[in-house]
Design goal:
CATH architecture of the largest domain: 3-Layer(aba) Sandwich
Strand content: 5-15%
CATH topology of the largest domain: Rossmann fold
CATH class of the largest domain: Alpha Beta
Number of helices: 22
Helix content: 40-55%
Radius of gyration: 22 Å
């Protein structure tokens, strides 16, 4: 029985032990092949093993590592794999891949550009703070794909020059929230704490503004936690467990105060919600991490739960703009939380007809940003683009800001968050104004 998915196990960073575990898991995957079409890792694994006439032990280190490098942590193994814990085989492919990155990070010797990319993508709060202040200039430079500045970025920090990047907002969400006057809810029926993910805080505050407006319209009071930072996902996916743990413990302490004050935590970005619910209890274990995980919800999930709660119910009169049809992208990290299709259910309350697209965007955290993954990421995104365009819907929706940016690059269509669609249906204008 393996215990090497535990980052505090003394064998966790031992490469020889990792290689043995990779062989064990690859052998199980080779015998099953149920995940053959999930991501590039599995075809590469099966091709390598077949090339050795089914002898997993004959795989080279390079062949093992190619499987690791092509895993973009979509987490869909948890939905499809029949051997995940508590099965006796204890097969946890995503956590094994994260362990492999942690071993590689601890070992050192990686190319300079990869290490710079880790730092550039991991320091989201520093980058967001600076870029928000200089948003017009930063956006002018980074929005021109293939330009000289973008080619310099590719050579220095490893972000592909052709990847469309989300622009920064001039005013951060927390700044807007603090400056509001005369806002709030009299006699609220519930209270929530809105965790401002880095995407919402620095790039798309309009999502959180509409979230607050929709929640307050339904008598749910909103507040902001004090002392939180980026969830730390870029550090975790890059193998820097120590930095991720520091971010996790700081956020857990801040969010636990909110929960003990009687507020649930709502998150408008799937990756960040997944990290809080699934990763914090493992990498920052304790009573507080479990408490926060139990009381954290996706923004649409919370509203649908409230609507279905006995004595609850949302306002279902929608005098504003309601599209006839919506194509809704189900983000991988939202599907992996096993909460159902709550974004669809929420939008359906408006009367819109919602069609689902269950395809990966090929971004998954920061994997699709890196220059070495760019071509493969776009290949992964093609089915998503094809099905989105074929739907021919009035509006394209998606919960993940990164995935929405990929959809925009692949299709030319601009997706909106489900909370933004609901806000317009209530007659709330962009920016949370009624």
């Amino acid at each position: 029985m393996t215990t090497t998915y535990d980052p505090y196990n003394p064998r966790y960073l031992v490469e020889a032990d990792l290689r043995e575990e990779l062989g064990r898991v690859y052998d199980l995957c080779h015998g099953c092949r149920l995940c053959f079409n999930l991501c590039p890792s599995f075809p590469s694994m099966f091709d390598a093993i077949d090339g050795h006439d089914g002898d997993v032990s004959a795989m080279s280190v390079a062949e093992q590592d190619k499987v690791v490098d092509e895993c973009y942590q979509c987490k869909l193994c948890y939905i499809k794999c029949p051997y995940v814990p508590p099965h006796e085989w204890e097969l946890d492919f995503p956590r094994l891949m994260m362990r492999a990155h942690a071993v590689k990070h601890a070992k050192g010797g990686r190319p300079v550009v990869e290490r710079l990319a880790d730092q550039f993508l991991g320091r989201t709060d520093l980058l967001g703070t600076v870029s928000s202040v200089a948003a017009p200039l930063v956006n002018a430079i980074t929005s021109k794909t293939g330009s000289l500045p973008r080619r310099v970025m590719q050579e220095t920090v490893g972000i592909h020059a052709q990847r469309v990047l989300p622009p920064y907002a001039r005013e951060r969400f927390s700044t807007w929230f603090t400056r509001r006057r005369g806002a709030g809810v009299e006699s609220p029926r519930a209270e929530v704490s809105v965790y401002p993910t880095c995407f919402v805080e620095y790039m798309a505050p309009s999502i959180a503004k509409d979230l607050v407006a929709v929640y307050e319209h339904n008598k749910i009071a909103c507040s902001l936690p004090e002392g939180t930072r980026c969830c730390g996902a870029p550090w975790l996916h890059g193998g820097d467990v120590a930095r991720f743990e520091r971010s996790a413990r700081k956020n857990v302490a801040a969010l636990a105060k909110e929960v003990r004050a009687g507020r649930d935590v709502v998150v408008a970005q799937p990756t960040c919600a997944y990290v809080i619910r699934r990763d914090y209890p493992i990498y920052a274990p304790g009573v507080d991490a479990d408490l926060v995980a139990e009381h954290t919800f996706d923004a649409s999930e919370y509203l649908v739960n409230e609507h279905r709660r006995e004595g609850g119910g949302l306002d279902t009169s929608f005098p504003g703009d309601v599209p006839g049809s919506v194509v809704y992208h189900l983000a991988c990290h939202l599907r992996a939380q096993n909460v159902g299709f709550k974004g669809r259910d929420l939008m359906a309350l408006t009367g819109a007809k919602v069609a689902l697209v269950e395809r990966c965007s090929g971004i998954d955290g920061t994997w699709g940003y890196r220059s070495e993954n760019y071509d493969l990421a776009r290949k992964v995104a093609r089915p998503l683009a094809r099905e989105t365009v074929a739907a021919g819907a009035d509006v394209v929706c998606g919960d993940c800001h990164l995935a929405n940016t990929a959809i925009q690059q692949e299709t030319g269509l601009t997706p909106v968050h489900p909370l933004q669609l609901v806000a317009r249906a209530y007659g709330i204008s962009a920016g949370g104004e009624r």
